[in-house]
Amino acid sequence: MKRRNLILGGGVLATLSLGTTATSASLAEGISVPTDFHVIDERDETASISLADSTQFDDTTHTWDNMQFASNGIAVTEISVDYGEATDFADDGGFNSIDEGDITIEFWAAQQGQFREPDFTFSSSDAATATFDIDEDDNDATIENSDDDEDTNVIIEYSGFENPETGSYEPTLTFVGADGDVVTVGGASFTTGSGDGEFAVEILDAPDIIGLDERATVEVEVENVGFGTDNQEITLEVDGSEVDSASVEELDATETETVTLESDQADSTGILDVVVSSDDDTDNTSIGVSGGWFLELEDTGTSTDSVHTWRTFGIDFDGEIDTIDIEYLDGTQQGGRLEFDEDDTDITIELTREGESEPTEIEDFEFTVPNQNSNRAEITLDDSTDTTIAGAALIEIDDLRHPNQGGDYEAAIELTGDDRFDETVTYGIE
């Protein structure tokens, strides 16, 4: 166990201010010193207080450690501890819950190469404060430098100490030397909680893409960041519906457990919104479903010009594509057709081709609106361009005019060439 030293020097009257962390305090560089005193070996140090159990009102062990100071062998005659608000303890809690037999004080003895325990008497004025009066003739309470600058030479521990109620605390230690020297170590902090568990969840692994009729397996890490052992149900939601759950039982504070959840079979292409939840936390991701096309609208309002993006995470098509036909069919509301315009409609095509890992824009193609049928467009790809499709693809159509009637509509896409693929999708206008 790494241990550290506590500075006490002859003629010193110094207040050492320690910066705060969850379980430790860093000694500030600034030390306030009256003009009649001097400081020995000023430097950054640390001190900490740790709790075996952080649950409010539980009996546990508090340990002061990691005090790294330099000393010239001063004898300590008194140590006091102050936790602050006594009202945060139960009447029989804190120092009212322990006696001398529950307290251990150790000073490092360099010559013997071990820790020594001085004789002392214990007194407390309330649950939050205590004083350890040490026999002035007991050389076991002399602070000596250890052989290792990273070791501590003072450890104070008391067991059976009943914790204060839920909250954050910054207790202080004060050492008084035989010649009146005083060093206060402050700012060490700890937090107590209600004893309930708090489960944080994190998605460790999930597929980027699944195929139609496939299930997504989601691996979730559950960590109890609360203060007590607890049980919770971890759920998996896909597109807002719960599809799976797993019970995590008797998970202790600070412990983790991994659970595996599974979605239902994907029944349509698109993007699945995946959310995992505990009672206290959520995490989310998105999973694409390949095997067909889906349609995204930038604006779903009636009588508006909008960008329509046809997307796929992959389809079954062997060889090269020669033509792409897109047709907006009659909707469920009367008078509902979208209109192509050869002069004003812009089209962007991107294909992930064989041997590629991401889509490439296809720039060489012709766009026509045959037979004056403004709801249908025919795209002819150039023969000299590689138009294979082996992954994600998109066809972006800019400035399509929506009908003036809201409702559900259908649109069809057909790819022809060395193979053939066609599909009809549904979208909504509001």
* CATH class value of the largest domain: Mainly Beta
- Total number of β-strand segments? 32
Mean of all residue-level pLDDT scores: 84
Task: List the domain count as a whole number.
Answer: 3
Portion in helices: under 10%
Rg over CA atoms = 36 Å
Q: Structural class of the helices, strands and pairings?
A: mainly beta
Low-pLDDT segments, ≥5 res? 1-44
Q: Report the CATH superfamily of the largest domain.
A: Uncharacterised protein YcnI-like PF07987, DUF1775
Roughly how many Å apart are the termini?
68 Å
Q: What's the CATH architecture of the largest domain?
A: Sandwich
What is the overall number of helices?
Answer: 0
Strand count, sense and closure of the main sheet? 12 strands, mixed
Please state the overall shape, judged from the principal axes of the Cα atoms: elongated
- Strand share of the residues? over 45%
Q: What strand order characterises the main sheet? A: 7-6-10-4-3-2-1-13-12-5-9-8
**The CATH topology of the largest domain:** Immunoglobulin-like
Describe this structure in words.
The protein is mainly β and 430 residues long. The chain has three domains: 180 residues, Immunoglobulin-like; 91 residues, Immunoglobulin-like (Sandwich); 136 residues, Immunoglobulin-like (Sandwich). The protein contains no helices and 32 strands. The strands form six sheets. A twelve-stranded mixed beta sheet has the order 7-6-10-4-3-2-1-13-12-5-9-8, with no helix packed on it. A hairpin with a 2-residue loop joins strand 31 and strand 32. The radius of gyration is 36 Å and the shape is elongated. The two termini are 68 Å apart.
